[in-house]
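Could you help me review a protein record that somebody else here produced? What it holds is a sequence and that sequence's fold in token form. I need someone to confirm that the token line plausibly describes how this chain folds. Take the sequence as given and treat only the tokens as open to question. This is what I was given:
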Amino acid sequence: MNNFLNNFKVKYYCYKGLYYLTKSSDFGMALSYFDKALDIDENSVIGLTGRGTALERITRSSVGEKWVDKALDIDPVNLLALFYKGEILGDKKDHVNASIFFKKALETAKSSKNSRGKILLGDIYYELSFQYLSLDNPQKALKCIEKGEKDCPNDEKLLINKGLALNMLKEYKKAIHYFDLIISKNNPELLSFCNHHFIGKGVSLFHLKDYENALNCFNKAIEVGDNHPCGFYWKSKVLNILDNADEANKCYFEAKELASRRLNYYKGTKTIFR
């Protein structure tokens, strides 16, 4: 009876932890629930994975990686552990190894018989294609996105990376089409997912020399948050062209400050937003 109750409690605490980790982004609350699960079962794979991921999100560092590694030692094909290990490696700018873990996660998700595999499939394609973009391989990213569109046709996040890949291939007008598709859907969850679509569209317009509209995009990217250095960096470039040197310098130094705080993440995205 005690074992049954303990197993139930572990599952409940892990469920609550995953909710706060993925749905409300309350990483401190998520961590508290994963810790409760691990107090009962120190080898709970979901508990270990969740604890490591929550720590990584709170500290914006790889401090939680050892917990995810322990989860993978116990269950080397656990979908969540593979996925979050890929995320941690991607944040460390280890895009080669991150892509390996996302490919393993993709294989596991596609062969999975439970709903979690199907739910995560779009996220895996998104993250895997983003690693290819960060490795300066937009062609490979596009192939990955095309497969993702077949397997999860309703996952709109893939449109972001499609636009970014086309930007890298200097197909700016095509890229704008996909960024506009995302913006026109007015999906609050998607628009708050990240500001890459606003920065991406701004970069497209910049290269097409439509500086006023590019500036509007970078302002929007900054407005929606996440303090992405590239938003301020590109805004400074536009302001210089528009002869507003004082504001351009302010934006440049803001970008430099933000980049110093999130160096690994910035190095990865700098390859894409160029």
Summary: The chain has three domains: 1-75, 77-155, 188-274. The longest helix spans residues 2-22.
